[in-house]
Amino acid sequence: MNLRSNQLNTHTLFNTTLLSSDNNYRVQQWNIPGISCEHPVISSRSGNMNLQSERVDYEPLDIKLIGDQNLVLWKEIVEVFQTYHIPSTNTSEKKLGQSWVEVYNSKNEYLFKIVFHDCYIKSLDSLDYTTMEDNEAVIIGMTIVYDYYTIE
User: Fold this and answer.
1) CATH code (residue 28)
2) What's the number of domains the chain is made of?
3) What pTM, to 2 d.p., does this model score?
4) Residue 45: what are its φ and ψ, rounded to 5°?
């Protein structure tokens, strides 16, 4: 199958265990999240000293998926929020799962996969939904927070 013609010029697919369906979703835009290490600073008479970092911080995954006009994907993400949010106490339980992004080149050859471990959906972008032409795509943006990622 030619991804270029059949999947709106995207060569990136997204999947997650957070949603009930086992579909690969087409990606319009995403970022490979950055990684940083905060070094504790200790002050002494001779100046400040940076100690070895005790933890690694991963930036969230911001991703925009190509949805359908029936809003099936958007409805499923909203359902995840509604299932794990308790309105009476204004608290939420985090449904942890695994998400991954697969990247292909223009010849539909697999390049690599990034797996995001122990993740949850932090936010869902607002959706501009208007009367559309038959071939116009709906773009669904969301932010996913996770413990760490691996590259395969």
Assistant:
1) 2.30.110.20
2) 1
3) 0.79
4) -65, -30
